[in-house]
Amino acid sequence: MKLIVDLENSKLLVQLNDGSFEYDLNSKEAFYYISKAWLRCGWDNKYVYGFTWLGRPIIQLPEDMIRIQEVIYQIKPDVIIETGVAHGGTLIYYSTLCKALGKGRVIGVDIEIREHNRKKIEEHELSEYITLIEGNSVDPEVVQQVKSLIHEGDKVLVILDSNHTKQHVLEELMLYSPLVSVGSYIVATDGSMEDFAGAPRSNEDWAWNNPKAAAEQFVMDEPRFEIQEPPYLFNESGISDRVTYWPSAFIKRLKE
Fold first, then answer.
1. What is the Cα Rg of the chain in Å?
2. Residue 16 and which of 87, 135, 224, 250 are 20 to 30 A apart at CA?
3. 204/197 Cα distance (integer angstroms)
């Protein structure tokens, strides 16, 4: 794909394998293609490595954080499980929402929680909302530890952000999806890897070896779940597609 942006005439020329197309810059089509280029450019420049939440690096696209906030506000989960801790920024973010809502707690799972990150998380003002579990997220003992922290009747939301290979995410989906409440989601983040295959900081196999591929396979085999974009709670724009690193990420549980 090649883009030519003509700001003087407010036009976008898109060159694809099947031809060239021209759009007005105020069209949703122009926004879509420019957003795709922006996401790729942001990936190449490590754009998401420039944000913190209440003092901790968060390493997420701001729009994705706003969208997951909308989901959490609608569901009001009692437990948010996140695989992948890193610096702990997202754990702190979800804890902030729990505190604001007056309910909820967060369980963070990571194969290695580095000592300086653990110290910062445990010393944080919102640490009372967080339980850390160190170990491989697909290890049966780790899964059992997580299960032991969930009480009967808890409403559960799960966010997968650890090892992003298709096989690992598929295993996480199979192991953690039974914990998800009806009407809630298990979220397989970073499916945008599919679009970055061959780019700097990527691998060629990302075209198929990614969380989006895992999510799509999972819902084919599991009829109780489907990939379902959360509805916009407010939208007076002409835009209907999210600008996201999480395509096909929101997997909703439809029934027991």
1. 19
2. 250
3. 5
